[in-house]
Recover the amino acids of this structure.
């Protein structure tokens, strides 16, 4: 006769806490006890539902107030206090979704420097996404550069334009890969690049339908910065936490290459 | 940006996910994360870089969560949010949340908080029993029984929910 198990072992097995040699015997036991097998199946299915429901939270854009707290520099433009942020944050989200984007991108006041705009959602999101994923050691990208064609095709389809991952080797940066991100109600593509020293720079692209075209602008927050522009209905931002001139050189190269890219469909 | 701050940033997506499981609505969940990172930054010098940032941050968040529960209990003001009250007030489902997701998240809220956190750390965050027990500051045996009870409660809640859904369809 096989070994005896109890309901307790169902949990241990499900949670990977049952040693491999016991697991085999456990599965034999489970097959011989249909009601226990049913229960194990239910626990497994419930866990799957939990994971499906909660999993996507980890891929949401992280609220700026949180990253700002960590980066040590609150937004000087709004003077937002962390403990006052609730009401304001809810309002900001709403403004962001309902067209604050357009105000932010097209409403810059000339001659007031890079921080004069009410908000630069594309650049801001690009910086947030950059600091989060550039810090990842294992999961820096969803799809690696070894599958570049698939990556570019997939992100082009989801973002809704023919993207290309610029060649930044002249600036010392190689493509690591990319990922799909939420951006307000839309999606954004992020291409991640890395140099030999391990410094990372990312290119962030999202739809900016209706936004007027802009030239090349700078956004800075914490130790990170992004150069961004709007072209052909899409917002582009090159973000990095390395020295300004490095980010700028990469951004200018990306800007040139993307402006010269074949007509978008 | 120094290494420690980078490590905290990298944990934000998971902290937010765990907080959402504990608090259900997005605002209170992000408040919890905010409190957690503020406390973490206060204590950043005590944190050894060799220590696992995830375990360190989740432990801090757990303490804050427990403190909040105690305060609420003392005030006795808050009504427990459960599926039974589903028509009493409107929760704030996030965009794109499906009925399936809403149902399981609401069922999760009816589970006793100690069991809820144990269940989520292991089932969703993928921690081992040893890791989760450290974060929650309890012996492994206690963790084990909280997970078992939590799973059983969740199963019953989901069965209830699916029964109610069927009745509604028939009506």
């Amino acid at each position: 006769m096989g070994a005896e198990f109890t309901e307790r072992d169902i949990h241990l097995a499900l949670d990977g806490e049952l040693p491999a040699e016991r697991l085999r015997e456990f599965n034999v036991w489970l097959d011989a006890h249909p009601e226990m097998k049913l229960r194990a199946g239910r626990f497994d299915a419930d866990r799957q539902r939990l994971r499906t429901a909660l999993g996507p939270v980890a891929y949401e854009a992280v609220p700026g107030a949180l990253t700002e707290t960590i980066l040590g520099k609150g937004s000087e433009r709004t003077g937002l206090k962390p403990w006052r942020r609730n009401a304001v944050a809810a309002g900001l989200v709403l403004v962001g979704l309902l067209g604050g984007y357009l105000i932010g991108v097209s409403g810059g006041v000339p001659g007031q420097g890079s921080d004069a705009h009410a908000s630069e959602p594309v650049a801001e999101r690009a910086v947030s996404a950059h600091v989060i994923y550039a810090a990842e050691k294992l999961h820096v990208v969803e799809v690696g550069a070894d599958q570049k064609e698939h990556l570019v095709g997939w992100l082009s389809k989801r973002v809704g334009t023919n993207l290309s991952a610029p060649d930044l080797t002249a600036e010392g940066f190689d493509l690591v890969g990319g990922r799909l991100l939420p951006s307000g109600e839309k999606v954004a593509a992020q291409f991640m690049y890395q140099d030999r020293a391990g410094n990372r720079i990312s290119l962030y692209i999202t739809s900016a339908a209706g936004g007027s075209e802009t030239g090349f602008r700078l956004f800075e927050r914490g130790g990170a910065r992004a150069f961004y522009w709007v072209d052909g209905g899409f917002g582009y931002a090159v973000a990095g936490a390395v020295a300004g001139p490095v980010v700028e050189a990469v951004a200018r190269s990306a800007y040139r290459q993307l402006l010269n890219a074949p007509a978008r469909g | 940006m120094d290494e420690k701050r980078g490590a905290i940033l990298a944990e934000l997506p998971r902290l937010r996910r765990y907080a959402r499981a504990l608090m259900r609505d997005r605002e209170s969940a992000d408040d919890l994360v905010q409190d957690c990172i503020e406390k973490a930054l206060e204590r950043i010098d005590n944190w050894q870089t060799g220590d696992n940032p995830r375990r360190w941050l989740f432990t801090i968040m757990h303490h804050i969560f427990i403190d909040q529960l105690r305060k609420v209990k003392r005030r006795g003001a808050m009504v427990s949010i459960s599926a039974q009250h589903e028509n009493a007030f409107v929760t704030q489902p996030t965009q794109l949340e499906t009925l399936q997701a809403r149902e399981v998240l609401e069922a999760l809220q009816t589970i006793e908080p100690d069991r809820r956190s144990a269940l989520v750390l292991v089932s969703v965050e993928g921690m081992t029993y040893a890791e989760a027990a450290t974060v929650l500051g309890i012996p492994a045996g206690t963790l084990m029984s909280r997970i078992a009870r939590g799973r059983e409660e969740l199963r019953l809640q989901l069965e209830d929910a699916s029964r109610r859904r069927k009745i509604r369809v028939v009506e």
